[in-house]
Model the fold of this input.
Amino acid sequence: MTESTHRGRILVGVDASPHAARAVAWAAREAAARGLPLHLVNALDLPIRGAGALIPPEYVASGQSCSKLLLEQIADEVSHLDPGLRVTIETSDFGAAETLITLGGDGDLIVTGTRGHGGFAGLLVGSVSLRAAAHAHCPTIVVRGTPDDGPRDEIVLGVERDEAQAPIRFAFESCERLGARLTVVRAWLSAPVYAGHFLTDEPASDKEQHDDVEQLIKDVRAQHPAVRVTLRTIRGNAVPSLIDAAHHARMIVIGAHRRRAPLTVGVGYVVQGLLSRSDTPVAVVPIP
Done:
């Protein structure tokens, strides 16, 4: 496997699990809406290094053959749903997370389900989706569940104080491309007070929080004047607040700092909480 030079597509990790099928269906709709091609990837996770690298050639050939059949079947199903969608397929001998992280480049989106088997075994702490969210150089969208009545034309952006611009830009650009409205959410808890003095310089009222968010998105908002924007400040824990605010929305957008160590899987409390609990797809945007 070599690093892809193709840009501007949606990469989705697939296997034969229902979770992967849900991710593929969501990714196909998103690719059609964004006018992007859909690239289906199945990872065999062959033991190609160390003592286990000497595996029988017939085992490799059998795995690749089964992978091709699975990918062709899924591609055929997707093409019947949307004949105009351009679909390509690829089998990787590498592991699932390594494959997605290597293939994902500028302009791409990675989509994964939360559980699976075979080449894309499930998202529990430390597995494929969490590793992709922590290490990929492009946004990773994790599809845990899709509401039965379908998504509203709304994207929810969660921002903290001093939020980086990357997730803000991604949210505005997505709304502009998809014709969706944007709800920007700041969840906050009251700053602790001692002897009449605040122990932090965190804004201490809803109005101050609102003004802080307005200032935060000001420059990007000016570049996308057609996007309808609503600002919400919510007193409470960020994870349940964002989940409630994004009920039936198209996606939640959240930023995550890149982890440099290859074995690091953590993405922070808020991102991990959303990936574990949100039925709304979560787009994790890398912050360098």
Observations:
- Residues 154-287 form a domain with the Rossmann fold fold (CATH 3.40.50.620).
